[in-house]
Amino acid sequence: MINSQIVKTAYANIYSEPRFNSEMVTQALFFESLKVVSDQDNWLEVSLWDGYIGYVHKFYLSNNDSYGESVLNLTSQYTDLYIDKNFETSVLTVPFGATVKYYDEIENGYKINIDSKEYYIKKIVNNHDLSKRQKVLNYCRMLMGSPYLWGGKTPFGYDCSGLIQSIYKMVEINFKRDTSDQIQDSRFASISVNDAQPGDIIFFDFEGNGVDHVGIWYGDDMVVHCSGQVKVQSIHDDSSKKLLDYIIDVKSLGDFLDE
After folding, report:
1. Which residue in 115, 132, 112, 133 sits closest to 123, CA to CA?
2. What global pTM score does this model have?
């Protein structure tokens, strides 16, 4: 049995059971490597980089092992994949948050190989001068309006913890997949909401059964979170569920975001 597979589609849905009508628990993005746990006909049980385990259909995957060594994070909302180096024919649109490996850098882009085929990606405008904190806030603004999707991790649809994981992975801060695990991350100290800085993580308990929602502190008493869609909302917003009343923890990421 092959030990790992690579996602060759824009993203791959990961299910709780080896059937499409089971719960979608998360997603794996283009070029992501999945460790194979078991093989069940047209389905594989796989383990993702964050330790999440689920089932994925084989048509999402490639076992080609020629991928290159140089790493490139795709930080645009969407990145087109081309079959020609003149960037005239796009064959796939890859969402924010994917990480690819390229084996050649050309004048205006990068050459990658997946599923025994060559593709080209336009050169990405780097924002190396920005701090990680600034990048996080830029990504929040870029993803505004993305719809809610249970198990989602792309601009086509996020859930609240998937948004957190996707954004911070692009600044080299890796979170677990679920909110219940994210709140227990011992790297980050708990602070008062009055001391929160942009880019810190805010946890909520709406149902009274423990943490069930998460967002990003945006500043000026505003939180970016995915509830219906990715949006920015005041913690004092006059609604049936004022966010301030449901905050149960605030995690400071200062030492990580100010590098």
Report:
1. 112
2. 0.95
